[in-house]
Amino acid sequence: MKIFSLLSPFFLLVTFVACGTTDSNQKAKQEANNQIKPLATKNLKNAKRAYIAGGCFWGMEELFRKQKGVLDTEVGYIGGDNQNPTYDNHPGHAEALEITYDSTATNFREILDYFYRIHNPTTVDRQGNDRGSSYRSAIFYQNEAEKKIAQEVIGIVDQSKRWDGKVVTKLEPYVKFWPAEEEHQDYLLKHPNGYTCHYERFGSFLDRKE
């Protein structure tokens, strides 16, 4: 899984067993193919994209793909130094998620709200067992409007004091998103027992009234 040198031999054993090509995993892969959400073409005229990073992209995708208004998800690399990055060679790139969403059903603010509920935005270059700039918390804004919304949501999250510490999410201008290898797409649908450090910690920050 991620940065194997940091993990114990026991955890490595568990991880490799969980990701092996057993009959149950083969069955899971088939079920995953049946569950992958087809892009809702009727909503394409209202489709927008968002680019975020918050640790291992496997867990991020698994949670976001189920959210209201999300039409499609794709994991990949963004914000780094090289062209055509790969899982084994992506210096400076973050493991990121491209979210295609129906702008009549959700919006950028709500996407960021959920983002801050499922990953710890107060740890620099770290998420769960994963360490390094690949696992930084980042929002890749495509225009000044998105940057402003990101700043506003970060302020709301900090004011809530739900997290122990200040948000350290980097706001980086979007340049190019490079899709990851097919084996990483919809990974936790294919490997239900695979590694993840993402889960819902809180309810919406936007609903909080104080």
TrEMBL record:
Its EC number is 1.8.4.11. Gene3D superfamilies: Peptide methionine sulphoxide reductase MsrA. Keywords: Oxidoreductase, Signal. It catalyses: L-methionyl-[protein] + [thioredoxin]-disulfide + H2O = L-methionyl-(S)-S-oxide-[protein] + [thioredoxin]-dithiol; [thioredoxin]-disulfide + L-methionine + H2O = L-methionine (S)-S-oxide + [thioredoxin]-dithiol. Residues 1-20 form the signal peptide. Pfam families: PMSR. PROSITE patterns: PROKAR_LIPOPROTEIN. Residues 50-197 form the Peptide methionine sulphoxide reductase MsrA domain. The keyword ATP-binding does not apply. The active site is at C56. It is an enzyme of class 1 (oxidoreductase). GO terms for molecular function: peptide-methionine (S)-S-oxide reductase activity. The keyword Acetylation does not apply. Belongs to the MsrA Met sulfoxide reductase family. Has an important function as a repair enzyme for proteins that have been inactivated by oxidation. Catalyzes the reversible oxidation-reduction of methionine sulfoxide in proteins to methionine. NCBIfam families: msrA. This is Peptide methionine sulfoxide reductase MsrA. It comes from Pedobacter endophyticus. The gene is msrA.
